[in-house]
Amino acid sequence: MASNAAPPILEMRHVTKAFGGGLFDRAQVVALADFSLTIADAPPSITAIVGESGSGKTTLARLLLGLVEPTSGEVLFDGVDVQKLNRQGWKEYLRQVQVIFQDPYEVYNPFYKVDQVLETPVRKFKLAPSRARERDLIEETLQAVGLRPEETLGRYPHQLSGGQRQRVMVARALIVRPRIIIADEPVSMVDASLRATILASLVKLNREFGISLVYITHDLTTAYQVGENIVVLYRGTVAEAGSVEQVVREPRHPYTQLLVGSVPRADPRHPWQGERDASGEAARANARSCAFADRCPKTMPICIEQHPPLFQTDPDRVVACYLNREAPVIGGEELSKVFVQAASPA
Amino acid sequence: MTPRPEAGPDRPYVPPVLQVEDLRVYYHTLRGPVRAVDGVSFSMPPGERLGLVGESGSGKSTIALSLMRMIKPPGRIEGGRVILDGVDLLALSEEQMRRTRLADIALVAQGAMNSLNPVKRVRDQIADALASHGGVTASQNGRVRARDPRDVVPDLLQRVGLRPSVAGMFPHQLSGGMKQRVVIAITISLQPKVIVADEPTSALDVVVQRQIMETLRAVQEEIGAAVILIGHDMGLMAQFVHRLGVMYAGELIELSDVLAIFDEPLHPYTQLLIASLPSLERKGVFQGIPGLPPSLLAKPTGCPFRSRCPSAMSVCTTVAPTLREVRPLRWVSCHLYEESGDRRQETGAEWQDQQAVGGYQPAASG
Predict the structure, then answer these.
(1) pLDDT in tens, B317-362
(2) Which of B179, B269, B283 is the best residue to mutate to test the A interface, defined by the most A CB atoms within 10 Å of its own CB?
(3) Separation CA A62–CA A99 (nearest Å)
(4) pLDDT per residue over A172-184, tens digit each?
(5) A233, A330 in Cβ contact below 8 A?
(6) What is the pLDDT of residue B339?
(7) Which chain A positions have a beta carbon within 8 Å of B290's beta carbon?
(8) Measured between alpha carbons, how far is residue A115 from residues A132, A137, A174 in Å?
(9) Has residue B139 got a pLDDT over 50?
(10) Who among A192, A222, A271 is closest to B239 (CB)?
(11) Contact (CB<8Å) B206/A196
(12) pLDDT for A296-311, tens place per residue?
């Protein structure tokens, strides 16, 4: 299931990002450690990145967007290091890689009508030959994300609901027809009844417009619903990755198991199950240990000695846990090889 | 029309610890009053865990603040009664209310963990709370006697699952989950009868969220307090509460035992809300609720949900439905369940016998 000959749209190769550790702040925090991920150009995919706060998921987003420079390793766009893109390459990148942020309010300038966020990219990238065509394009795009143009255009951000604002953001990302959209917690500030609508419009972009999606979230449930493949991050390292069905339905890493068991199911007959946090603070975990060793209910001596590599337990799953050490080890850069390819739309 | 469990043959009458009657809270803006809470009534037996769930703007947090009488201008409690153990809180003086807060009804506010004083040790923050209420605390066997607040601190910390050494720490040395435990320790320090928890875990990760909710449940059961959990997460409600109330546009539109609501939601809004929830069990199609809640500035006549309701009838435009008990212990505000011969007339006499079915039943006192 390796990618085709064409270079991937986005690729992270052994990326590490550490903060601090400078002259004044000795304590270094490794936000992301030796992380590799490949988003192939085709077929369009949906990759969910799941982690709690401090897992490095937002750092990962910022690295993909070129907003922070890796401490080591590279982020490649069409095979070229994002940090070394020339003017033309950077412009291409800005068009092909779009982002949707968490807060659908902060990204708007309250003094401008919402039309402005849609007009700007159209003009910047010269997508429409005339104002009339520009209007058509904007209206088409709004309709594609389920908004009625007459109820949306000409209004100020505060006149729209949170769900509408976020869908305008989806439209803004779509209007330039990018190849990939990075969505960082796009629905965590939106009400439950509207959440489904936004997720549906994101999935529609993937299915109908062939846009790949990196869906970054703390919410395992929506990750399962949206994603084909999932990467579970824990303190900057991969705990488990692979097809969403395997990882979420039959988790193998003790951390994924804890996470799945802690999700409050919307079913009073299905109470919280499984182990709670072990909080084994006594474990002599150190910088070389497995990142989860101090909380893991199944810590073994080897977990303290060294961080586990990725064990490929199934054709489409890897687990970074010594409980699976019978399975073959694969290198971090091969992570994306276990990803399943897009299933045909249901 | 106050929804409250009545006495039945198998069920001695337990007076409710909290009764809210026709509560109305408006925010007065230049464009007119925003009816944030518009005639909400419910009551709770001692020890019950009641959930109030709703989208942003449904009035759920305003209810939390009005129960504590902490509504600030331009908001104002326009009417209704909040009766805590026989005392109408809305009729108390400001000083009486100050003494009632924390001692009888305590609030775990949204983001409360960030309200700890950054320059005070945990021990002193808990002692402060006690001192402002005379440093009196009830001892285990029910007798009330004065104690040095500092004696109580280790005990309180232990009850919320924290080591005694946390007493000497400052908030910045604690994780989010530990801070929220400290807040819960303060909340239960005077053994209130009612705890109002407004999204107590909204900023926490799911693993920590579960620990905090299990801690809250443990201490609540220990001191016998009733808890009102306010939030938007149906999953959390399903895991925590006995009874669930669903808010929409400032009104309580359904109130039932939590199992019954999830098994068979009655109000069309509740039905759509539950259908829209993503599940870990199966991948499905995303089904949102089309449309938006009405403006609370100019609420339409009739039912507030009618513009989004798939079952709307002509009567819904003109007549506002009221919350009524359409089946034993199942309260819903919807014309679909009215006057349709819906078992209402035939079974009226049998209702009393069925009161014991479902719902939370407090232990009979004595």
Answers:
(1) 999 999 999 998 899 999 999 865 444 343 333 333 333 333 444 4
(2) B283
(3) 10
(4) 999 999 999 999 9
(5) no
(6) 65
(7) 197
(8) 14, 12, 14
(9) no
(10) A271
(11) no
(12) 888 888 998 899 999 9
Torsional sign, CA A252, A258, A263, A268: positive
Question: Inter-chain contact B210–A264, Cβ cutoff 8 Å?
Answer: yes
A104 pLDDT tier (thresholds 50, 70, 90): confident
DSSP string, A195-232: HHHHHHHHHHHHHHH--EEEEEES-HHHHHHH-SEEEE
Residue-level pLDDT at B148: 65
- Provide the shortest C-alpha distance from residue B41 to chain A (in Å): 24
| CA gap B309, B307 in Å, rounded | 6
Give dist(CA A101, CA A182) in Å, integer.
Answer: 8
Record the pTM. 0.85
Summarised one tens digit per residue, pLDDT across range A223-280 is 999 999 999 999 999 999 999 999 999 999 999 999 999 999 889 988 887 666 555 5
Chain B CB contacts of A203 under 8 Å are: 286
Look at the block and give the residue holding tokens 């040790």: B121
| HSE-up (13 A, CA, CB side) for residue B175 | 10
Alpha helices by DSSP H, chain A:
57-64, 87-96, 115-124, 131-144, 149-152, 162-175, 192-209, 220-226, 244-249, 254-262, 301-305
Look-up of token digits 């497995």: A290
Any long-range contacts for A292-296 (C-beta under 8 Å, 24+ apart)?
Answer: A292/A234, A292/A235, A292/A239, A292/A253, A292/A254, A292/A255, A295/A255, A295/A258, A296/A254, A296/A255
A259/B206 Cβ within 8 A: yes
Q: Does the beta-carbon distance from B238 to A266 stay under 8 Å? A: yes
When mean pLDDT is compared across A60-69, A158-167, B1-10, B56-65, the lowest value belongs to B1-10
ipTM: 0.82
Q: Is the pLDDT of residue B235 over 80?
A: yes
Which residue in B40, B39, B49 sits closest to B17, CA to CA? B49
Question: How many Å apart are CA A147 and CA A144, to the nearest integer?
Answer: 7
Q: How many Å from the N-terminal Cα to the C-terminal Cα in chain B?
A: 28
Look at A225 and B286 and tell me if their CB atoms are within 8 Å.
yes
- Omega before residue B74 within 30° of 0, cis: yes
Contact yes or no for A192 and B205 at CB 8 A? no
The yes-or-no verdict on residue B186 having pLDDT over 60 is: yes
Taking each helix axis from N to C end, the angle separating A192-209 and A131-144, rounded to the nearest 10 degrees, works out to 120
CB contact under 8 A, B273 and A200: no
Nearest to B91 by CA among B190, B37, B21, B40: B21
Q: How high is the pLDDT of residue B356?
A: 33
Tell me the nearest-neighbour CA distance from A287 into chain B, angstroms: 20
Measured CA to CA in angstroms, residue B222 lies from A206, B100, B188 at distances of: 51, 21, 10
Chain A residue set in contact with B, beta carbons under 8 Å: 52-53, 161-163, 191-197, 199-200, 203, 218, 220-222, 224-225, 248-249, 258-260, 262-272, 276-277, 346
A12-70 pLDDT tens trace: 999 999 987 666 666 778 899 999 999 988 889 999 999 988 899 889 999 999 999 99
How far A73 CA lies from chain B's nearest CA (Å)?
A: 29
Best residue in B207, B233, B248 for a mutation probing chain A (most A CBs within 10 Å): B207
| CA distance, residue B54 to nearest chain A CA (Å) | 9
Q: In angstroms, rounded to a whole number, what is the distance separating the alpha carbons of residues A218 and A239?
A: 14
